[in-house]
Each structure stands twice: as C-alpha cells, then as structure tokens.
Amino acid sequence: MGDDNLKRETDMEDDLQRSRSLRLSRRGDRSNQNPAKDVDVTLFSSGRVSQDYPTKIVWKKGFVRLVLVVGILWMLLILLALLFHIWSCQTSVSFLSAMCNKDSKVYTMLDTMGLVSKDSNPHRCPIPLSNDPDKIDIPTGRTPNEIVKNLSYIMKDEIPSNRDQSSPLFGGHPSWKQREESFKLKSNMKVHCGFIRGGGAEMELVDIKYVKKCKFVVASGIFDGYDLPHEPSNISFSSKKLFCFLMVVDEVSLKFMRKNGTVKEDSAGGKWVGIWRIILLKNPPYDEPRRNGKVPKILTHRLFPEAQYSIWIDGKMELIVDPLLILERYLWRGKHTFAIAQHKHHRSIYEEADANKRRKRYARPLIDLHMKIYYYEGMKPWSSNKKTISDVPEGAIIIREHTAMSNLFSCLWFNEVHLFTPRDQLSFGYTAFRLGDSFKYFMFPNCEYNSLFVLHPHTREHSSPIEWVKDLNKLKNSKLRESRGGLGLFTPYPGDLDSVVLPNVTRTSKAG
C-alpha cells in the first residue's frame, strides 16, 4: 500500500515536471516569434518604467481625443456663426438685420459660393408703378419758378489775398458771408455752384455736343476704377428713345474699362458701354475720388444744362425699373420736383455722423467739426416734432426736375460738400433746413428705394489714409489733408465752436 502511494506521488511529480517543461517550451517558442515582448516583460519587471508606461499610452490617447473634440466643437462654432450671419442678413427683425454687413469678405465669399444672395433684400416692397410706360402722359410744360425765378452761377474764383493757393478751385473760395447770403432767397440769385474756370472737370467737345440734345437723363458715375457699368434692365422702347443714359467717368476708370474690353467707339468719337454713353471728365477737381463723384451726382444740372429731368443712380447699382415709371411715380403723380429716399436706419444727421466715424468714412475730428458748425447754426437732431420724416437720405438715387429752386438746392448742397466733408448725407438735411418750407421735396420709403436696383459689389475696396485720422493736429500741416476740398474746415469760423457740445447719440444700428 505504501509502495503504491509512493509510486503515485512519483508519477504526479513526473507529470508536473513534464507540464512545466511543455509550458517553458511553448513560452520559448513565443519568445522567438516575438522578441519585442521579452523587452516589454523586462521593462515591466523594472519598477518605475513598468508603472509609467501604461500612463503614457493613456495620456497620448486622451490628448488625441481631446484635440479631435476641440476641433469638432470649433468647426461647429464657426458653422453656427456663419448660419447666424446669413440669418441676420435675411431676417426682417430690424435689430438683427442691422448687425448684417453685406460688404464683408465673409458675406461676399458666401455670395460667390451661391449660399446667399446680396440681391435678396428683405427690406424691399412693391412700388405702386403705372402698368405701361408707353401709355404715360408726359407733361409738356415745366413747373413754374415761383420764388427763385432766375438763377446764375459764379464762374470766376476770387482767391483771398491771405491764401497761398494760387490756382482756382472747382468750387471756389466762398467766404462765410457769401455762404450765408446764398441761403437768403430772392427772385434773382447768383451763387457758387462748382465749375469755376480753371478748376478742373472739363468735358470733351464731342461729349458737350452730344449732351445738348438730352432733355431726359439717367446719369451715373464711376471714379478711380471702383466699378464697371451695369446695363439697366426692364427698359421700355419709349424710354430708350426718350432718355440719354450718361455714365460720367474719370481717366482712371476709362482706362480700366478699356482694359476690360467693354468700351466701343462710334464714328463721331463717342464712347459706349452697352446703353451707357461714356462722358469723360478730364482733370479731376479733387484729391478724393469720393469727392469727385459728387460732381455729377449733385451738379447733374450743370453737367447737362439742357436736361429737364434727371435720375441719378450710383455706379455700383443696376437699374431695374423703367425710368418713365420712376418719373411718373416720384415726380408727376404728386407734382414734386425733387425726390429722394429715406435712410434705412438714421433720421438725425448726428447719428449718421456717428456711424460715419465708426465705419471710418472720413477723418473723425473733421466730421465732429462739421457737425459742430451745423449745431452752432441751429440744426437740431431730428425728432417727431419736425415736419420732415427724416433729415438723412439714401443718396444713391436722386430724381429731379431741373427747376430754379431744385437747381439752387443742388448748388447749395454741393457747396456744403465742397466746404466741409464729402459725406453728402450729412449736408442734405442741413441744406433743406436752411431753405425751410421754400424747398419742397418728396422723401419716399426706403423699401421702395431698395426695389429700384440690384446692388453689385465694388471691383475693389476704397480706402484713404485721411479716413483713419483721429487727431486734428495730424492734419493741419500734413500731406493727408485735402488741398482742393474741405477748406471750410481749416478756415477760421466766425463763431465760438469751442463752446459747442454735440448732442448725445443713441446708436440704434451699426449701419453707416
């Protein structure tokens, strides 16, 4: 019995040894197949390294996941911002729509990709137009001149003796006294109105001859190559026969158009781009292209003296309403002689001035000085107590019958632009305020204004160093200061402007 137990134990030990030998043999085989694991085993068996290695793996995996999550969240945030930007530009909520900047590079990129459209304007509304432009009764006579019967213009510049300026200015050197007298209405008046001899902005003889036949005018302008002409659409056969479509340009813009292959010449030497007759103004009168653009815009009656009616439209716009329908709606139907749209956001010139400063439309201290002069002279902020629905227009479209009073207003408006800043929206309300009830005009709803055109982007962004100036002292003896415009801002004013405190402005929108 004892021998049997001993034999059994011996057999069990042999089996255990064989089992151990087999496991060691298999482990050896695996070690030969995967020698790197031996290193791992060795590493794991050595204290500190064996504890840190799994931690490093976990940390690396966690970091990669964190980067991926942050990247996805960042992309979602950008997408949400783009969606909000698009929505704010399409919504009818005024507060949100005011946040939209359709001139931004982001919106332009989205427009190029077809995700948005700059032409889709939520502030459009139907215009109560006549049905057929070919059936409109065109007035045969002119609106009588009741207050100002004869209007003539100062053509020679009287340069003050204390001026270093030797050459004449396009707008002249009107004194403060002459400016004040120009607002006093009389039957016969003679005022500054641009086009001083030797001041620049000369037309070619072939164009002077052509415009003499133009009684009905659609005018536009492009300066410094910022735009290309846009062909009007929906133009009736009657309007094509009746209207001259005149595009006023400088030499830089004409060269740019020729480079793009859009200019054609007729046998008489006239230049054309589609329906537009190109009118070249040689020798630009001002340093600033924006100020040069005010010449055809405001002084349309001076450039085209035979015109009885004119419709001005900025160069970046494509007219989409027949001109005869426009004259019937905005002039003849209500017996108006001057029509312009209400500004989308602002009613007070002081709010408009604040927006101009924020968007760097001109030197901020000069805008403040401009507004101080107006406030000193009695121009109050707009309120519901005023007779006008707004003091600030959208100046990109102006519809006029060229009566003596309408022409006088245009001259005085331009004189303010010549003397002060080129921001004509600031000067419009002041000029109307000075003429009072004697000058009647129709300011139509902004939503109708937006339905008259399709807006196209500029070919490039406009920027001038003077727009960034924050300190007036940097301009007084600087090359940044304009040499041919804005002289009223640097001429001693006959009043105590230091005592003027401009009214507070409540910013209702970011638009400028």
Automatic annotation (TrEMBL):
Q: Where are the transmembrane segments?
A: 66-87
Q: Does Membrane count among this protein's keywords?
A: yes
- Check the record and name the InterPro entries matching this protein: TOD1_MUCI70, TOD1_MUCI70_glycTrfase_dom
Every TOD1/MUCI70 glycosyltransferase-like domain range: 151-458
Q: Does the keyword tRNA processing apply?
A: no
Highest taxon in the source lineage = Eukaryota
Q: Where is this region: Disordered?
A: 1-37
Q: Where is the composition biased (Basic and acidic residues)?
A: 1-18
Q: Which UniProt keywords apply?
A: Membrane, Transmembrane, Transmembrane helix
Protein's recorded name: TOD1/MUCI70 glycosyltransferase-like domain-containing protein
Q: Which organism is it from?
A: Phaseolus vulgaris
